[in-house]
Amino acid sequence: MELIQSLAMFRISQILMIVLFVGGCAVAQQAAPADVPASLKPTGNVRLVLQTHAIGSQIYECTVSADGKYAWTLKGPDAELRDGRGSVVISHSAGPKWQHRDGSVITGSAIAKEPSPDGKSIPWLLLSADNSTSHEGTLSKVTFVQRIHTEGGQAPTAGCEQGHKGAEFGAKYQADYLFYAPQ
Fold first, then answer.
1. Of 177, 179, 104, 119, nearest to 153 (Cα)?
2. 116, 36 contact by CB (below 8 A)
3. pTM for the whole structure
4. How many other CB atoms are there within 10 angstroms of residue 41's CB atom?
5. Model pLDDT for residues 44-64, shown as the tens digit of each residue
6. Which residues touch 54 (CB under 8 Å, ≥6 apart)?
7. CB 24 within 8 A of CB 30
């Protein structure tokens, strides 16, 4: 009888472990923070694999269009992305490109954009990720990147005129970047 009770208790504990594991996975697989617009939420069966906070600059260059007008044009970001412990885990550069310290690399293409809620910062984005040239690592399976909670980073409103072609300006910014991969 004791053996049957022990086996029953063992089986119950296995079932509880499975329920806790599945419940924990459901929490970990929540797509995006509640304040993210629906248009910026990844599609398909994906899970959040990494959440980071970026501090850096959006680099703008003074360019001249075909019609002779001068304007600040985004050259690309230059930022460090930190994990929840504050460790730099990704460098972010033009492309846009993200390179993890483990050697994995992705590039992105914007597929959706929403204005920042404060109206004074760079937009929030959803990007599709290309990991076709990546080493195995944290980013090697990533298919979507979100840029949310932006602060700053807007192009200057003056200073790009004749005589300044090629000049660069680094607009300081911060943002959260969330990386998603298939289940």
1. 119
2. no
3. 0.81
4. 15
5. 999 999 999 999 999 999 999
6. 77, 79, 80, 81, 82, 92, 173, 174, 175, 176, 177
7. no
